């Protein structure tokens, strides 16, 4: 608080005026609240408006002897409590202690000169340590040899869980990687194949899929049966799995060594909703039950932005390769351009490669996989 200026009073002795000033200075304390912890959510609340009322008008005459101690000092200690976040958000996913492990090898699916393929399961959780444990199924390809091998966790695209079967969606990619010396762990996700069902998976807008991808990395690192180089594990997502890849990298920066996204969905969940869910039912039906207690994007844009990885791109530390077909009519090419630009602006080492192909990658598959392996070899050197 600035010292109050004494008004001219010719009839007062100089010593009296000085005492008055000391009284006012000693009694003044700050009325502004102490600074708290910085916001950790993408949408921070506004600071309170400063008051326009002065605390006290100075008087001409001192009313008491000055004190040597101020009445009260404003506290500068932070509360230490994290800001609350929506439990269904990227912020909550980033704050959770995502765990995994207990990789169990089951039946041999295929044995070639280059690799052996197994049915596997591993441990995940509903939403991090302390929440309900889950068992996730998948398929694991292990190259022939002693290792340790670099590894890739595979996050498949959307297939209706009612019809999905174990290992479906990235069979070609899994075999291609194993033939070139990479352990490849295909994650079925919760509520798919033989995985444990999570009743909140749709209400939580599939954020749990990213938690399962993170759990797969921990399972590979902890395994005694599969020799994996802990520092050379990448995450490779296709279509919806591209969104899983972005969410996992943003929530757990530095955990994976690299990220790859093929024909990826948008990094803004409102765009994915408009493209994939909005045409499926009348608006009234979607409002009534599709997202449970959440509003639709037009009604609650902050919620849908909070589900999106794009606002957290600045957290990503890994290099990212995006691969997209120029004729993709499922995930528009404009999404890939926007995502790569947003990553680059946020400081991510992000590359976008184009191929003359559609969403499923037929004619360009081998060329795109060769490019992907070169990227992984260069960004995860032995």
TrEMBL record:
Molecular function via GO: carboxylic ester hydrolase activity; serine-type peptidase activity
Stored Pfam families: Peptidase_S9 (PF00326), PT (PF04886)
Domain Peptidase S9 prolyl oligopeptidase catalytic: 176-359
Biased composition (Acidic residues): 50-84
Region feature Disordered, mapped onto this chain: 30-86
Stretches with biased composition (Low complexity): 40-49
Keywords (A to Z) from UniProt: Hydrolase, Repeat, Signal
GO biological process, one term: proteolysis
Family the entry assigns: Belongs to the AB hydrolase superfamily.
Protein name: Peptidase S9
Organism from which the protein derives: Nocardioides eburneiflavus
């Amino acid at each position: 608080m600035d010292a109050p200026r004494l008004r001219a009073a010719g009839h007062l002795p100089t010593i009296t005026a000085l005492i008055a000033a000391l009284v006012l200075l000693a009694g003044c304390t700050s009325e502004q609240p102490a600074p708290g912890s910085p916001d950790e959510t993408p949408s921070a609340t506004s600071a309170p408006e400063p008051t326009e009322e002065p605390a006290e008008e100075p008087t001409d005459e001192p009313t008491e002897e000055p004190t040597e101690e101020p009445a009260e000092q404003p506290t500068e200690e932070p509360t230490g409590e994290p800001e609350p976040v929506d439990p269904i958000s990227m912020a909550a996913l980033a704050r959770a202690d995502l765990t995994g492990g207990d990789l169990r090898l089951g039946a041999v699916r295929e044995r070639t000169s280059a690799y052996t393929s197994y049915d596997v399961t591993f441990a995940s959780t509903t939403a991090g340590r302390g929440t309900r444990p889950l068992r996730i199924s998948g398929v694991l390809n292990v190259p022939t040899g002693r290792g340790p091998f670099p590894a890739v966790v595979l996050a498949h695209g959307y297939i209706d869980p009612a019809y999905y079967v174990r290992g479906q969606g990235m069979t070609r990619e899994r075999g291609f990687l194993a033939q070139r010396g990479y352990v490849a762990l295909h994650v079925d996700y919760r509520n798919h194949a033989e995985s444990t069902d999570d009743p909140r998976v749709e209400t939580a807008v599939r954020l749990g899929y990213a938690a399962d991808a993170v759990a797969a990395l921990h399972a590979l690192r902890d395994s005694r049966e599969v020799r994996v180089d802990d520092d050379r594990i990448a995450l490779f997502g296709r279509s919806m799995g591209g969104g899983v890849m972005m969410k996992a990298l943003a929530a757990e920066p530095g955990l994976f060594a690299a990220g790859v996204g093929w024909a990826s969905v948008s990094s803004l969940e409102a765009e994915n909703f408009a493209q994939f869910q909005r045409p499926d039912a009348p608006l009234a039906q979607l409002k009534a039950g599709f997202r449970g207690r959440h509003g639709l994007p037009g009604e609650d844009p902050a919620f849908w932005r909070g589900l999106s990885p794009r606002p957290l791109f600045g957290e990503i530390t890994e290099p990212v390769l995006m691969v997209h077909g120029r004729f993709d009519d499922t995930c528009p090419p404009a999404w890939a351009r926007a995502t790569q630009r947003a990553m680059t602006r946020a400081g991510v080492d992000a590359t976008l490669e184009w191929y003359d192909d559609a969403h499923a990658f037929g004619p360009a598959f081998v060329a795109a996989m060769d490019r992907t392996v070169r990227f992984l070899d260069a960004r995860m050197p032995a």
